[in-house]
Amino acid sequence: MIVALLAVLVYKFYGEELREMFGYDEHPYGFYIMAGLAIVLVGLLYGFFIAIICGQRISERHYHVLAKQELTKEYVVEDRENNKNVPELDQSHITELRMLGLY
Length: 103
Hints:
Layout: H1 2-22, H2 29-74, H3 91-100
């Protein structure tokens, strides 16, 4: 849209000079075609850029959700005061919980 607006402004102010410079007696249809192709190209590049950014954000969220699911599968929370037959944790898990200040 911005490229089209700039092309229209340039043509409005310098249209006669551009026609004389390129040797056109009538409207320069080749110039119009090139401007249209430029607009399409800029739009496609912008669309790909936005698609890449959205794809990265979706994959980051997906990875974050999967990481949370893996963490919730690893531990089972039980009330140790009411249930006296709770099995002890592995020593590596106890060490990790102590490092985090949770045990």
